[in-house]
Write a structure and sequence with these properties.
The chain is mainly α. The chain contains ten helices and no strands. The protein is globular and about 55 Å long.
Length: about 260
């Protein structure tokens, strides 16, 4: 145990939750709605230990991976466990950054591990959904293939954002964070479509939190239908179709915006 005077939660919020964190576009709605209210208490407990911010991020990675593995358990219990694991992933995702800001230990390795955690969770969950749609590990077939394809599209869509950063760095441009409204499409048609997508934000479904909630809804639907797999299979097909549109729209939005200028 680290013997140090623990600050109050109010003191911690001033340092660990500045407006630049709470107001950033990348902040997930669960953080804004409730997790950022809980995370300082968790971070304060972590301050009393020797765990590093990267150590907390590793716990986040494990929690996210566990969300995918939980979906391999049949029926609604596996889906409920997946939801809980995804919530724990996001709570730890808040706390690792808070611990890093309090201790002044932010690093490139921490950013890398954070991305590793989200990529891992958001690949395993769609894949596990495909396995569930097939009826489990003992009956892997075509639905698992669709789940793997969905996982690939989700990863590709996430990688597009990192491709933008890599392209700007290679071209000697400043970081995208320094370019206000860089993501606004220059073409009016794409701009209107982007605005319309805000009313039907299916592109947001591919985060671990949303995916596990949808998996739970599908599991409940399957239960109400007598234990079949129709709900889960419809979910996989719907997510796959929406993923194709999402990736195409994302590429178009990047190429018609100022992100690469």
């Amino acid at each position: 145990m680290v013997m140090e005077h623990l600050p109050s939660v109010a003191q911690m919020r001033l340092v660990t939750q500045p407006p630049t964190v709470l107001g950033r576009p990348a902040e997930h709605w669960t953080g804004t709605l409730y997790l950022r209210r809980i995370s300082p208490y968790v971070t304060r407990l972590l301050l009393a230990t020797r765990i590093t911010p990267n150590g907390v991020t590793w716990l986040m990675i494990i929690s996210g991976a566990a969300a995918g593995l939980a979906l391999l358990l049949p029926g609604w219990p596996g889906a409920v466990l997946a939801v809980l694991c995804a919530q724990m992933q996001m709570l730890l995702d808040c706390s690792d950054g808070e611990l890093a800001r309090w201790r002044g230990r932010s690093s490139a390795s921490g950013v890398f591990l954070d991305k590793l955690g989200h990529y891992t969770a958001e690949a395993l969950i769609p894949l596990a959904l495909g396995v569930r749609a097939d009826g489990g590990l003992g009956s892997i077939g075509g639905w698992t293939t669709l789940g793997a394809l969905l996982a690939g599209l989700v990863l590709f869509n996430k990688a597009l954002n990192d491709m933008v950063h890599a392209a700007r760095a290679s071209a000697g441009l400043s970081p995208i964070n320094d370019q206000p409204n860089a993501g606004t499409p220059r073409k009016a048609t794409v701009r209107r479509l982007r605005s319309a997508a805000r009313f039907v934000p299916f592109h947001r479904m591919y985060h671990s939190v949303e995916l596990t909630f949808l998996a739970l809804l599908a599991a409940v639907y399957d239960l109400l239908l007598g234990g079949g797999l129709l709900g889960t299979r419809v979910l996989v097909v719907g997510l796959l179709a929406a993923a194709v549109v999402t990736v195409a729209g994302h590429v178009a939005a990047i190429l018609t915006s100022s992100k690469l200028r």
